[in-house]
Amino acid sequence: MASSATPSSLMLSYTTSSVLPQDLNPSSLSFRPNLRFFNCSKAFSIYPVLLNRRDRKSSNWVDVSSASPVLVAALAAEAEVAEAVEQEEAVAEGEAAGVTPPTKPKKGKAALPLKRDRGRSKRFLEIQNLRENKKEYNLKNAISLLKQMARTKFVETAEAHFRLNIDPKYNDQQLRATVNLPKGTGQTVRVAVLTQGEKFDEAKNAGADLIGGEDLISQIKGGFMEFDKLIATPDMMPKVAQLGKILGPRGLMPNPKAGTVTTNLPQAIEEFKKGKIEYRADKTGIVHLPFGKADFSEEDLLVNLLAAVKSVEANKPSGAKGVYWKSAHICSSMGPSIRLNIKEMLDYKPPSNV
């Protein structure tokens, strides 16, 4: 006796099967272990075994604990076929109706389209909506927007980030310089001076916070770092060289390009106290520098930002080719970036009263 053509019924017979009962063993049959009760809607007879689907919604439970392996396999196979047919019918009906199965809507941060925004704070996501993404702002609007975005409990720093068309791995494309911010940085700068002889009195009268020679070098070796800028006279540089591994990673190593190796101590101390900062391009050609505090007036921030832009433009490396400025952004310490219009930034002329 052959099996029925429709998948909804399964007919098995011992007489026509080429497989002998003694050749069957439970391990060779594909049915789930520990199957004791099976919810089946089929009526079957033993000779031959005829499984015929009647009502899918009925709940007739059949005890198969003492049934033969062939019978258990038949029941399991019929259930799998029935489930597959139901799924195919449901998919076919959905396609025919043009309706896709509904998906569970995402909630909260998981619903955000950009993956990087899913780890942001609620405060950041709120202030991020204040600016249009990828829009280029002029200087006045950008600074006004920066002040609106600074909503933390502390006074945030105003930062500028310039992406330049340079590759610092080449010597003629490296950028390292200083700029005097006319309105200051808004921070109290502690200046330490390494000198000897008569320069002690000059540094003290100029307002240096720490003054020393070999004794200060020994303290730095021991971990003393209670200063923001370290200025040294040229005659102390051979002794300062041994501090390279300590001061270098912190950006405190005296350097002539940064103006921290000089014989004119009063001028250097005064400039750093008033707001002189050092900047350099990182390995990707981006310059990061602060130009004030978020509680500065818009006019003061504008003056400082223009001074920084002019300094970066004036110190353009000789090996830089093509378009020098790629992009320019400003932001607060804890806020999103605001893209600047480079042409307007370079051509901007402040009012006479600023």
What are the SSEs and their pairings?
Elements: E1 9-12, E2 37-40, E3 42-43, E4 49-53, E5 60-63, H1 69-97, H2 122-128, H3 139-149, E6 157-164, E7 176-180, E8 191-194, H4 199-206, E9 210-212, H5 214-221, E10 229-232, H6 237-240, H7 244-247, H8 265-274, E11 276-280, E12 286-293, H9 298-314, E13 325-332, E14 338-339, H10 342-347
Parallel strand pairs: 8-9, 8-10
Antiparallel strand pairs: 1-4, 2-5, 3-4, 6-12, 6-13, 7-11, 13-14
Helix pairs in contact: 4-8
Summarize the amount of helix as a percent range.
Answer: 25-40%
Strand residues, percent:
15-25%
The coarse silhouette is elongated
Strands across the major sheet, in which order?
12-6-13-14
Cα distance, first to last residue?
A: 102 Å
Number of discrete helical segments:
10
Radius of gyration, in angstroms, nearest whole number: 39 Å
Low-confidence stretches: 1-60
The chain-level structural class is alpha+beta
Largest sheet at a glance? 4 strands, antiparallel
**Mean pLDDT over all positions:** 78
Summarize the structure.
By secondary structure, the protein is α+β, with helices and mostly antiparallel strands. Helix content is 29%, strand content 19%.
Word description of this protein:
This protein has 354 residues and is of the alpha+beta class. It has 10 helices and 14 strands. It has helices spanning 69-97, 122-128, 139-149, 199-206, 214-221, 237-240, 244-247, 265-274, 298-314, 342-347, and strands at residues 9-12, 37-40, 42-43, 49-53, 60-63, 157-164, 176-180, 191-194, 210-212, 229-232, 276-280, 286-293, 325-332, 338-339. The strands form 5 sheets. The protein has a 4-stranded antiparallel beta sheet. Helix 4 runs parallel beside helix 8. The N and C termini lie far apart (102 Å). Residues 1-60 have low confidence and may be disordered.
